[in-house]
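Incident log, structure service

09:12 report received: a user says their structure output differs between two submissions of the same chain.
09:20 pulled the input from the user's history:
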Amino acid sequence: MIAEIKSSEITATLKKFFGFNGFKGTQEKIIKNLLSGRDTFVIMPTGGGKSLCYQLPAIVSEGTAIVVSPLIALMKNQVDAIRGFSNESGIAHFLNSSLNKSDTAQVKKDVLSGKTKLLYIAPETLTKEDNISFFKEFKISFFAIDEAHCISEWGHDFRPEYRRLRPIIEAVGNVPVIALTATATPKVQQDIQKNLGMLEADLYKSSFNRDNLYYDIRAKQNVNKEIIKYVKNNSGKSGIIYCLSRKKVEEVANELKANGIKAAPYHAGLDSKERGLTQDMFLMEDLHVIVATIAFGMGIDKPDVRFVIHHDIPKSLEGYYQETGRAGRDGGEGNCVTFYSHDDILKLEKFMKDKPVAEQEIGKQMLSETSSFAESNSCRRKFLLHYFGEEFDESKCNEMCDNCRHPKEKFEAKEDLELALECVLEIKEKHKIKDVINVLMGILTATAKTYKQNVLETWGKGIDHDKDDKFWMSILRQAVVNGFLSKDIENYGLLKITEKGRGFLKKPVSLKFTRDNHFSKTNNAYGDDAFSDGKVGSSASDEVLFSLLKDLVKKTAKAKNLPPYVIFQEPSLEEMSIQYPINMEEMTKISGVGSGKAAKFGKPFIELIKSYVEENEIERPVDMVIKSVVNKSGLKVYIIQNIDRKIGLREMAKSKNLSLPNLLTEIETIVESGTKVNINYFIDDIMDEEKQDEILEYFKESDSGDITLALKELGENEYSEEEIRAVRIKFLSDFAN
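09:34 re-ran on a clean worker, output below:
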């Protein structure tokens, strides 16, 4: 037992020190359990008040509580918060690599004097021999292991140092331990308790449902532009944007700043002083938006974050849940927008290829769950809570996810579910989802051959549904979420039939499932096919105006005897239908429209847009013109200047450590954005005039300007890709700019 502390003293401390009149949820039970000397395991969603569960016991107990925390930013934030409640600055300290010798000496002095009630420490610091000796010099009230999911290799932020905590705790003294996390699947929960030696700990698990959060998954197209528009539409609100890499963090932060948004990057590559300043400015609302890496995480305890945007899909649903959980911690508005492309999942899988096989299996399974969540058309809240072992009635979502707010058409799934369950039984519940799908579709894999699955009753019976595996993936996914099947996590996700599933097979009943989202890329080629009916690009575009602009492009192209893509490319038209440019200056701000192209083709388009705006009384978002950030490398400027000086392209490529094809790509980008260049000197050097004329004629008549198609049509034996690309650059520069 830590101390005999009365309930009245606990309540009085809650009011006097923290300023609260009452506890939330299970906080009081957790605090009393810890104070009674019991090991305590807390699983509580972000915003549920986990910190109070160890901060209050530390304040009322004799001695100092050691709080193990993985993030320097989180330590600083919590120490500042505790000091804010007290007149004694020494009441809370952190001990980590950011301190100098004199700072460290002061911390140790305050701890030994008894002033310090909470000492935050990184796991790496805790395991140092001299620190272990220091911890034996004072009374420790208890250990608090924050972000305890870091212990588990099945967690989303595995930290090997956390695996060494139990021996250190035992070496220091036999005191109670409280472990806390916001995200833990049943498997992670078991792993944490086992590794911390807390199998007998009392478990307090709160509901994972955050009913004020709105979950929204969007196709990943023009993502930077969409983010800027979203932030501008939520002007003045605090938000966090997560990206996968530091480079992308810097890029997005710079584009936000260029568009008048108070934003800053936040990642491990920045020095601690800059990170600390950024954090403080965000808390003080001198910054509205933080752009951060998923890998680094954020330790910012800010209650009024109104939106969390994922530029890239996280590596796991635990990561997604924790990061989105930083929105609306005060119970107010919290919008969670994620831009998803299946290409991101494939990219993340490639990153794992050098890891041990077991680690790859775990990582792939986590990614599979994440992509399933993104592509699902059923209630996102139900899917998410099921993942954490909690059942949820989707009717209670209250349209707080995109799928419930905009429900997709459902179909009768009785027979399909029957077939899927029969297949799982036939393969003896010893295989994963992918293997089940292969049997249903009759795909003869090595596994199918080994287990002679091609002679089963269900072999190939699902082939009529789809040419790919999307349909059966959806059926099996919804079967798991709705309790007909379960995944054996211990065995890398083998499918097992539940009692509910067996009951369904005995007595099948009608039930409805939804088809999944496919998030396929849109075709940005610009021939006649690109002008077919149907919604193109962003949902924010004015479809009527977009259609009128397409017609005008065709008309202009016909009059000038040029292909449509030479006049304006589709992304430029789409942006015009969002921004409504009505003068030449505004037209030049549209991406892909330089001053030369605007002067050459812009006038009739400006007149059309101006007339359309007036007739329909449209309020133009003039402040929404997205400004792009100048490429800091100066590569474009270098290329243009050296072309003007007639420097050979091969020499240019070599000096910039580029291949010639990559240099041609850069020049294509410059020309397609409306800048005129003259590479005739290079073209004349590599081919005769007759060849040039033949390629030019081809592009004058071509609908798409596609290089691969040009190679095929002109003859790969006659022309090289380099020659065709060079002449296409000349053609666009001469006729489009």
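09:41 both user submissions now match this output. Likely a transient worker issue. Closing.
09:42 reviewer note: The longest strand covers residues 213-219. The CA atoms of residues 373 and 476 lie 13 Å apart.
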